[in-house]
User: What shape does this take?
Amino acid sequence: MEARAGFAGGDIPEEKFRDTEDRSIRGILQRQRDIGLDILTDGELRRGSWLTDMADAVEGFVPDRVLLDWMGPGGGAEASTANAVGARLRKHRNLTAFELPFLQREAQGPFKITLPAPSNFIVSSYKPGLTDKFYSSRGALLQDLVEIVREEIQWLVAQGAVYIQLDAPYYSHYLDPQHREQIMKEDRDPDRELADGIAADNAALEGIPRDRVTVALHICRGNSRSRWFTEGGYDLIAEKLFGSLDADRFLLEFDTERAGTFEPLRSVPRGRHIVLGLVTTKQPALESKDDLRRRIDAAAKYVPYEYLSVSPQCGFASVAEGNLLSMDDQWRKLDLVVEVARKVWG
Assistant: This one.
């Protein structure tokens, strides 16, 4: 964090900053190996937030923001970390150009690499009065976003990546009754937009060899400095999402009552894998192992055990500032995930 601030302020040269990034990521990769995680991640430590590599790698984003109403500690209206689209989009480098080569050298085993789903940006970056000067509709913007993400995925596959995850928290706008009402007040159809987003994300996933690449999709309700921007269960989107989106596994937030019950999992087709995000990343209190096992048992009423896993509900830091936990709190949470997984699945 100190090096990032120094580099942004012009006090640290880029080479020294990159060395610090590399050293930090090597440390967290080793710690993940030590606690027994099977699939490693670089923690997105190179990103300002989980989706900022899109604007860093693609021309056409401008330093303008879409406001979100955050709930939780210090909540209120605040701009998304995503830049608004203020010109035609043109990719000038790979989004994961700095991440993939390092992981290939340093992970020493399977790793996951994440990308923001195209569907996010029709919510986070389409700003009426600005974006519509270049894209007549959200659907028109989606077409260019799909091509950008599809090209990135094909590059990752060609480079040997075996686990690719699309992060898609903005699907939660279509399950939240208040957000659905706001969308309709703007003469938009939330169900139509949900279907369009699913179709776009599917288009970005076309052509992936599923015999050697796992495709995952993650949904949460916001995760910035321990805050959130949507609430509600998966009921309103479950049938379309699980039945239509062509992911091998879904990583789903289930750490609080805000996420609803497991009942929507009855819509999951046989053979799809559900990763239960039962361990919160928003507060340091450690969950009870017995409670976690009981909740896994409850989810197994809808999805067989062999198609379930357990994880944190989201990353520990969707933005560089992180959530209201210490580093030690985070590692204790991951230790807990590994311990519970071993007890349940062996």
Q: What stands out?
A: The chain has eleven helices and ten strands. The mean pLDDT is 95. The longest helix spans residues 14-35. The CA atoms of residues 101 and 159 lie 9 Å apart.
